[in-house]
Amino acid sequence: MLDIAEELNRWVEQGRDFAVATVVAVGGSAPRQPGAALAVDGEGTAIGSVSGGCVEGAVYELCQQALEDGETVQERFGYSDDDAFAVGLTCGGIIDILVTPVPVGSPLRPVLAAALAAAARGEAAAVARIAEGPAELMGRAVTVRADGSYEGGFGGHPELDRTLAEEARAMLDAGKTGVLEIGADGRLCGEPLKVLVESSVPPPRMIVFGAIDFASALVRIGKFLGYHVTLCDARPVFATKNRFPEADEIVVDWPHRYLEAQAESGAVDARTVLCVLTHDAKFDVPLLELALKLPVAYVGAMGSRRTHEDRNKRLREVGVTELELARLRSPIGLDLGARSPEETALSIAAEIVANRRGGTGAALTGAHIPIHHDTSNSVIGRIGSVA
């Protein structure tokens, strides 16, 4: 649901009734992960997606029905070999969908509205909703903020709200979305509940060093992938908004000095990607010396194989270890045969995605490898402690 927070927040502000269908759990080769959502308002307008098209029509009708009868329901969609025209996933996977009505006046609305507003502003927030359990608890929610404060509740055992708020905050800190199993009394024992926890965190950062034409294309594709993109170069004549209009930030500074300040302030983290396109030893070496020591997601540097070998020699001379050098992706990007700035940016972005999701970069045609590798953002577990 928080993946379409901006649009849903506008619906809340406009006073629209709506129902939201959210992926709760997946099995097999499902196209969307838990948290993906489709919403339908009282006029029949739809936003979002839960399956990439396979079951959208059926889910749309479920949302309309939920608006009519006010009931929260969970529905499972799988694959039917017996009827090629049956509603289901052609990929062979299984998805469980939670459909929740959120009309004006619903006690659930202000709870979800708080999460939607925070996510739309780019702030960290998590929302926990009962996805499976007693009918009277279905769809109830708690919204949790980064400082641990929360609003809403489940109306059951008092320990349930507190425990789920704590667990939701832990998942928010990790930027994870997934399903938790817990007893209705907030412990492992008791009537079991399944709770969907959705986390929304500020977008990850991409810092591109070097104000060259390849950087302009990479900035554009970085924005397309959802990164907050910073362009940094020490030369003010090249690092301009006119040349990089899509960049969120343009910084005129020596790259290593800027990165050092960002690291000291905590503005880079395990989701940050660093793309070094300066292609100049006086910039590259001090920058990479620092970058390879930081716990970031990706460090890539542009250059030929000859440039790469010379750069590695210089980095060893300043004390960079072999273990640190092994983190460096250089020459940067995957082998796509890229020539133009746009093709090269695609090559770099493909490597970043493969590194993030655990992909191989190999062609899927004829390969006996999973299509979807990533499980890092999905959590299924049991929580609580036995009294």
Account of the 3D structure:
With 387 residues, this protein is an alpha/beta fold. Helices cover 31% and strands 24% of the residues. The chain has ten helices and 17 strands. The protein has helices at 5-13, 56-69, 108-120, 158-174, 213-224, 255-265, 281-291, 305-317, 322-325, 341-357, and strands at residues 18-27, 37-41, 46-48, 73-77, 94-102, 125-132, 141-145, 150-152, 177-183, 192-200, 205-209, 228-233, 249-252, 273-276, 298-301, 328-329, 378-382. A six-stranded mixed beta sheet has the order 8-7-6-10-9-17, sandwiched between helices. A six-stranded parallel beta sheet has the order 13-12-11-14-15-16, sandwiched between helices. A hairpin with a 4-residue loop joins strand 2 (37-41) and strand 3 (46-48). Helix 1 packs across helix 3 (108-120), helix 5 (213-224) packs across helix 10 and helix 6 (255-265) packs parallel to helix 7. The two termini are 34 Å apart. Mean pLDDT is 87; it is low at 81-88 and 378-387.
Task: Furnish the topology, listing elements before pairings.
Blueprint (H helix, E strand, L loop, with lengths): L4 H9 L4 E10 L9 E5 L4 E3 L7 H14 L3 E5 L16 E9 L5 H13 L4 E8 L8 E5 L4 E3 L5 H17 L2 E7 L8 E9 L4 E5 L3 H12 L3 E6 L15 E4 L2 H11 L7 E4 L4 H11 L6 E4 L3 H13 L4 H4 L2 E2 L11 H17 L20 E5 L5
Parallel strand pairs: 9-17, 11-12, 11-14, 12-13, 14-15, 15-16
Antiparallel strand pairs: 1-2, 1-5, 2-3, 4-5, 6-7, 6-10, 7-8, 9-10
